[in-house]
Amino acid sequence: MIADGVEDEEKWLAAGIAGLQQNAFYMHRALDSNNLRDALKYSAQMLSELRTSKLSPHKYYALYMRAFDELRKLEMFFKEETRRGCSVVDLYELVQHAGNILPRLYLLCTVGSVYIKSKEAPAKDVLKDLVEMCRGIQHPVRGLFLRSYLAQVSRDKLPDIGSEYEGDADTAVDAVEFVLQNFTEMNKLWVRMQHQGPAREKEKREKERSELRDLVGKNLHVLSQIEGIDLDMYKDSVLPRVIEQVVNCKDEIAQYYLMDCIIQVFPDEYHLQTLDVLLGAFPQLQPTVDIKTVLSRLMERLSNYAASSADVLPEFLQVEAFAKLNNAIGKVIEAQPDMPILGVITLYSSLLTFTLHVHPDRLDYADQVLGACVTKLSGKGKLEENKATKQIVALLSAPLDKYNDIVTALKLSNYPRVLEYLDTETNKVMSTVIIQSIMKNKTRISTADRVEALFELIKGLIKDLDGAVLDEVDEDDFKEEQNSVARLIQLLHNDDPEEMFKIICTVRKHILGGGPKRLPFTVPPLVFSSLKLVRQLQGQDENPFGEEESTTPKKIFLLLNQTVETLSNIPAPELALQLYLQCAEAANDCDLEPVAYEFFTQAFILYEEEISDSRAQITAIHLIIGTLQRMHVFGVENRDTLTHKATGYSAKLLKKPDQCRAVYACSHLFWVDDQDNVKDGERVLLCLKRALRIANAAQQMSNAARGSTGSVTLFVEILNKYLYFFEKGNPQINVAAIQSLIELVTTEMQSDSSTPDPAADAFFSSTLRYIEFQKQKGGAVGEKYEPIKV
Length: 790
Fold this sequence. Notes:
With 790 residues, this protein is mainly alpha-helical. Helix content is 72%, strand content 0%. The longest helix is centred in the N-terminal third of the chain and has 31 residues, at 2-32. The mean pLDDT is 90.
């Protein structure tokens, strides 16, 4: 059925165009022969094609545009006729003899245009006559297009101030009167379309009306271009009459479109000075009108106007724009109890943007808007609708974008209350936006109270909110979120140690509830922030005034011990071990031997009880050895205990090569350059000999398992350790030991059972070259190396 209707319309349109073109042809022939009577006859017949009621507005428009083009040619002919002496008044009378009213009025408008140009009569009189005569067509579509034609031919001939058609003192009033009258009649015709035809075709009619709305709206655009309309005339005459027409038409489509037109076409300063009238119209509109969008656009325009220049801001204060808009929004929401929550949030979001532009210094206004939003959201629970949550993110992002400072946003008491209504995912998005704002603007958050408020805002990233299922989160997204929290923790700082310690305690309180997946990301930055504070307090033991509450390194280390312990409970033993060793090194720098010993004890316990993976054990034992080697705070007894443990664990690694490397690394524990009390040459030699035995054992095992002794790399590595300690002056490392080791490596490399290893060969060659280089240096070093034969 629909397809048939479309086909029929195409046929009717084709027939209409054919009839129009045929009569246009005869009209052109008459024009060419200057035959006025025939020209009028065929032009009237051509325009009769526009009398059809069978076409939809879209198809009718196609027919109208062809007729419009022909009428422009006819108008030029009429101008020529008047130049040749034909009276324009007679012409104006003559066209009124056309048989049908619609062609008659099109011709009348065309001649009327020439009549005004001739200036034989005042423009206002001709326009008044034309606008009145057009009432003869009451069919909505035909009437709309006729009046649209009238508006088109008259727009450059209005008796406006400064125009060549300017009349007496009230000339602008005449121009306004004509446009308003035409607008009113067109709007009535446009609204009447809604009530014609069966109810089942309502949607189709609404679509057709939507296609024609610009014909009506153009009148308001013409009105806005009239130079003679000043603020007083707009306020006293133009706006009240337009608003009256909009309210009285009681049509949802017309009211929405025309209110939007008013906001878009008239100047911002006029809107500001007529806010009462404009806002007073909103509650009078139909309940189904999408007021939120129109009101939001009004606030958006006013916001942009305020942002355009600081000079206009006093105008906003003078008219109390914020109070009026706030009051209007309240009335609109009250008048529409069924307004979706998205609409409510959109309105308050626009009002907040307006407030931030116009009153950036009035935080109480911004907080008032957020408070009103909270009131409307109360009882709604978490918002599930995607568009509504996005709008809340926009609402909460506005203060951040304006102030570039989360500290200012934290002063808004209702800010966190709005956040409560976001679902878990959107809460995370908003938390990320807040952190990004802090990073981008390098915001300094330097008090514990502000940190507390901030972490309450971003708690969606710090811990599982009610109903959140962490397992469903994308792993990469989760890492990125937690890394952003870690970066934030590193940014928190205060030069005052007392306040900084409070900040650390506040952060710790929040992150420890984050669960096992988050702690490996958030604990390390907290530990390093704490260690930074320890360095700041380095050398300070007790507060000189004896205050128990003061921050000391001991107090921080106690907190650190408890904090790192949470990682070992997750478990994340490798990370916990690394942090214990970092803490031990800081305690060493503060000369706190018992504290450093405790951290090492915890590290060894983790190594014994939690770290079972062989690769992790290798990394851990080398970390322990490296850290222990740098320690200077330990007495003989404690150092011996720890070094004994380290060497013991080194010899118990699973693979022989790993054992060997760990044991020869332990040799550095007994010889430290800058510590005279840690230079035990015998124990260094014991470690190196033990490493040699393990290397031998590794070769034998390789021979037994694979039939070859394997690489000599371990022997070359041990040789390098011998050379290191020989150079450092260890008396137990002598030329004979080095010589025998060189010969051992050479023999092994020449053995038939050894596996060729280019890397080991290169390493050994490089070592021998180093010995030769040291010989050639001369002096004490050269003498020392001279006996070694390579």
